[in-house]
Design goal:
Blueprint lengths: L3 E5 L3 H12 L3 E6 L10 E4 L2 E4 L5 E2 L3 H9 L4 H4 E4 L2 E3 L5 E3 L7 H8 L6 H16 L10 H7 L5 H15 L8 H12 L8 E4 L3 H4 L1 H10 L3 E4 L7 E3 L2 E4 L2 E3 L1 E4 L3 H7 L5 H8 L3 E10 L10 E3 L7 E4 H5 L4 E7 L9 H16 L7 E12 L17 E3 L12 H16 L1
Parallel strand pairs: 1-2, 1-14, 2-10, 14-20
Antiparallel strand pairs: 3-4, 5-9, 6-9, 7-8, 11-12, 12-13, 15-18, 15-19, 16-17, 17-18
Helix pairs in contact: 1-10, 1-15, 11-12
Amino acid sequence: MNKRVAVIGAGWAGLAAAVTLAERGAEVAVYEAARHVGGRARRVEIRGKALDNGQHILVGAYHETLRLMRQVGVDPEQMLLRLPLQLVMADGFRLRGYGLSPPLDGLLALATARGLRLAQRWRAILFALRLQRSGFRLPQDEPLAALLERHGQDGALRQALWGPLCVAALNTRVEEASAQVFLHVLRDTLHGGRGASDLLLPRASLGALFPEPAVRYVAERNGAVHEGKAIRRIERSGDRYVLDGEVYDAVIVATGAQHAADLLPEGCETVRAQIEALDFQPIYTCYLQYEAHVRLPFPMLGFRYGLLQWVFDRGTLDGHQGLIAAVISARGPHEALSNEELANAASATLQEVLGHPGAPQWHRVIAEKRATFACRPGLERPDNETPLPGLYLAGDYTRSDYPGTIEAAVRSGIRAAALCLA
């Protein structure tokens, strides 16, 4: 008899679990409270355009995400724009890879970085070599700012290189970000094999990359994905579980962290306390529609100073000509601004950088107030297993080497499914 498994939540973690279970012959039912799948990395419709609730960068080191995309019938080489390691800032700083094997590629990129003095490039190379010799492990976790200061990575190195990379990867500023988790990211990208540090920028909406094909994959294997169906309570019946009147052998809770804490039944007090101790960081995306001829000098452009951190040229990426997506990550004074003020500030910045493209024809701000957990030093994240047999957690906030990324979510779903089937 096949195991009956319920997955609560149809984000990337829940659907990664569902695909893994369906592949192994389990009878899977996915419950999603919203009327769309994808969670915090999903497709949205704005003025008739299929866009995203936020801009997500994938990298070549996201092996499990890329594998599952292929498994559900998506070709990453067609759906993602692959660029060798590139960090391009609006003020002229540029770091680029050469497609060589690690660690040579990363070291050569640092040696030839444009916008740094020779002494700064040399300090960055020495820092990278020290990290490599240590196996990217610290005796004790600490704020990334402290690690950078101790190794002379201040000034332009922090502002143009390590700071933007930290915010992009951890959605947490260097002053409070976990140095150890940041080193895990460096380990798997800069030293993870040829192509691991490549940028993979979506050419289509996030829903088309995995969530929507995953729903079809599960349905074709006699599973079901129930959209618009919220689960308010998990009941135990002996060694099984009851959801909405249906009995299951196991349950994977793959909702956002705050909803997971509310769902956990008695016996999970320690796990609930770990979840409730998490803090969260926002991500704001401001879409600005200009005339069709407006372009960025590079598909993804960074900013060292001011309000914006990254802007994306959606015309280059997915054909929405003249559409620019401006991103503001982590906490900051921008949270006190209205959507109109945010859009005006983003537009003013782009006018300065692009040579006055004019006022946008329209704008839309999307605020994910709890986009990721705050990735701080020594954070105790809950495991995928709970004290109750047959009850598991999946989500980017669960215990792993990674920060709150798509790859972390996907890996957690695969692990929860494997534990469920063991």
